Amino acid sequence: MIVNNFPENLSLFKTHFSDVLEGMLDADELGAFILVLANSMQDSALQQRLKSPLEQKFLLLKKQFERGELQAAKDDYEVFTALVSLGLESLPVWKYRQQAPWTLLYNPMRALRPARSSSEIIHTLERPFNSDAFHFNKPFLAPEIFWQGVFNDFELRVFYNKFPFAPYHLLIVPEYRQCLPQYLTEKYHQLIWRFVAHYAEGLKGLGVAYNSLGAYASINQLHFQGFIHDDLLPIEDVNWEHNGGSIAYPIKCDKADNVEDAWEKIQLLHQAKQAYNLLYRAGACYVLERKFQGEEQSPDWVQGIAWCEVCGVQTVGEIGLFKSLNHQDIQRVLLSVSL
């Protein structure tokens, strides 16, 4: 289904989301199969719609794999090797568990995600764009595009997240032809503020997040992470001080109610050369100041502490961890990145 404008209501958005995913399976591309499988697991409706075409594609790919004929990038080949060992039937729909005020998400596919630069120790907010590294302009990523077009005179290319950890998880890349590094400037901050304000009414639960370099941004090309989450994230609870409550959040968090105030807070972090994560909601921006990746001493089970984790949602790939982790375990993760 062709959508010229970015889908402005939830029904159209979800239909487009699933239609493009299903069409992606027609491509002879292992990476596309992995992306569709990972995205299909976020809810039972998507899983049911995509179950049969995914199973058929898996059998074809498995035969190629067993004959030694499967051609794929190293990361994709390793993921598929794990999938052959696990079997698709062992991959359930995402499960959530509340450990108030925090949330746990069981997502076994997320455990298979390649680390890329999120595994590096980084102590800087800015690096030059590297055309030799992984980036969103690679031709083989073309089938993974959810939508591309113009919003407020900015050219946007929006991708599916290959290993999603939030509902309807998308990657928003502005002015992709310019090969911008992952360093936020005021005009792109304003762009995302306007994007969320424009679409939030029709797309209930819309949010957009940003990881600075050094705050578990895994790709050094300017991008933001969109999602649609029916429930508020733990960081949005009214009991926190930044929302007018009386309880201090484990990480230093400022909430700005207008685009100018939010930018002032971000500028201060740039001047201090301090890592940060952002969460944009309609009429609000949460600015979280944190340690650079590699400086924290987090538990072994933590794969990374990016925007979703600092907003109070911990994703785990093992069912035992999902069942056993408690409030204090999650609290320790957030405190590990607190300055």
Task: Tell me about this structure.
With 339 residues, this protein is α+β, with helices and mostly antiparallel strands. It has two domains: 1-90, no CATH class; 94-337, HIT family, subunit A, CATH 3.30.428. It is 33% helix and 18% strand. The protein has nine helices and eleven strands. The protein has helices at 10-24, 30-40, 44-66, 74-86, 186-199, 259-272, 307-310, 319-324, 327-337, and strands at residues 95-99, 102-106, 145-151, 154-160, 170-174, 206-211, 224-228, 253-256, 276-281, 284-289, 313-316. An eight-stranded antiparallel sheet has the order 3-4-5-7-6-9-10-8. The longest helix has 23 residues, at 44-66. The radius of gyration is 19 Å and the shape is globular.
Q: Count the strands?
A: 11
CATH fold label of the largest domain: HIT family, subunit A
Mean pLDDT: 92
Helical segment count: 9
Low-confidence stretches: none
Q: What letter string, H or E per element, gives the SSE order? A: HHHHEEEEEHEEEHEEHEHH
| Major beta sheet, strand line-up | 3-4-5-7-6-9-10-8
Shape by Cα distribution: globular
Based on the structure given, which CATH architecture of the largest domain is correct? 2-Layer Sandwich
Distance between the termini: 47 Å
Any idea what the CATH superfamily of the largest domain is called? ATP adenylyltransferase
